[in-house]
Amino acid sequence: MAIASITERLEILADAAKYDASCASSGTAKRHSRDGKGIGSTQGMGICHAYAPDGRCISLLKVLLTNHCIFDCHYCVNRKSSNVRRARFTPKEVVDLTLSFYRRNYIEGLFLSSGIVKSSSHTMEQMIEVARSLREDHGFRGYIHLKTIPEADPALIEQAGLWADRVSINVELPTDAGLARLAPDKDSQQIEGAIGRIGDAIVEAKDARTRFRHAPRFAPAGQSTQMIVGADDANDSQIIGRANRLYDRYRLRRVYYSAFSPIPDASAVLPLKRPPLMREHRLYQSDWLIRFYGFSVTEVQQAADEGGMLPLDIDPKLAWALRHREDFPVDVNRGSREMLLRVPGLGTRAVDAILRARRHQRLRLDDLGRLTRSVTKLRPFVTTADWRPTLLIDRLDLRHRLAPPRQMELFG
C-alpha cells in the first residue's frame, strides 16, 4: 500500500536511518547568514548535538531519501528481500523538510543517506540534487552530510563533495571475507577506491585554496566511514587494524563503529544476538588511544586477549598497563608526557594540567587528586613527592581491584 502522507514517510525513513552512526558534524568551515544572504550557519567547532536515549545523534535531520534497495545485504533492514514498509521522498520534499525544520529551530543541518533505487548513479544524482538545491536555490549555509554510494559514477561522488560539508562511504564490515559473505553486491576494492578518490580530492582542494582564494571547497569537514561490529566473526584486533589502515591511507576524519543489531526477518547467516554495546565502546576507546594518546596499533592490540578481543570489564589502556607492569610506576614530577598519557586514569587534559603545575612545585598525591577526577585508579601506576606504590603494582588481584563494578545493560 502506498504511503501518501509526508509524516508517515518521515516516520519510516527517519527510523530506517538510525542504524548509521556516522552523523557527527565537527570540523567544517565557518559560515553564517548575518549579512542577510541565505539561511543557516555552521560553527568551526561543529554543531551542538542533542542525543536520543540510545545515544544516537539527532541534531541533524537524519533521514533516507528512500528505503527501497536493489541490493540484498544480509545485515541491512532495507535489503530488497526484507519485509519492511517502503517509502520514498523526492529531492524537493527533503529540501522542504530541511528548511521547515531549520526554521522551527529543530535542526542545524541535514544527514542524508539512501537505499539504492534503479541504480547507484541514479540514486546519487537524486541526493546531489537535494544538496545543490539547498545551497543554490535557497542559500542554505547549514551543515550537510551526504552518505555517498561507492558504486556510483566517480564524477557524481566528486560533485557530492562540492555541495556537502562532509561525505562518507561505509566500508560496512571489517574484513573482505565478511563483506563477500554478507554483502554480495558490494566490492571492498571498489569501496576503498571511492574513499581514496574522495581523499585525493579533499587534499587537492585544500592545496588549491592555499593558492587561489576563491577555489571551490570540497568536503571541508573531511570524510568518515563506518564498520558494523559483530555481524561477522572479525575480532577486535582485526577491526582496530583495519581502522588504522583506513586512517593512514585515506586521512579519514573518523571511523565509526556500530554494534550489529538483529533486524526483522533476519538472514540465517547472521548472529541471533547482538554483541554487547560495551564492545562498541571499547573500540572507540582504542581508537582514542591511537589518535590522541600516542599508542601504536600493535600496542592497543596487545590489550586484547588470545582471541583478539578487548576485555569488556576494563578499558584498553588499563588492560595494556596490566600487561606492561614493568613500565610503571611513572613519576608524575619527572615523567614525559608520552609516559603520563599511558597511566590509566589520566586523560589528555589531566596530563597537560600536571605538566603545567609541576613547573612551580613538586606534586603530592593530594595535588594529583585536585588535577584529576580520582586518584584511586592512579595509585598503582604513579609516584609523587609523598607516594610510592611499593608492591601494589605487582599484586595478582590488581585487575580485580581496579575493575569497575559490573553494571547490567539496560537493553540486554
UniProtKB/TrEMBL annotation:
It comes from the Bacteria. This is Putative DNA modification/repair radical SAM protein. Residues 59-286 form the Elp3/MiaA/NifB-like radical SAM core domain. It holds the Pfam family Radical_SAM. PANTHER family: ENDONUCLEASE/EXONUCLEASE/PHOSPHATASE FAMILY DOMAIN-CONTAINING PROTEIN 1, TYPE II SECRETION SYSTEM PROTEIN K. Its cofactor is [4Fe-4S] cluster. SUPFAM superfamilies: Radical SAM enzymes (SSF102114), RuvA domain 2-like (SSF47781). Keywords: Iron, Iron-sulfur, Metal-binding, S-adenosyl-L-methionine. GO terms for molecular function: catalytic activity; iron-sulfur cluster binding; metal ion binding.
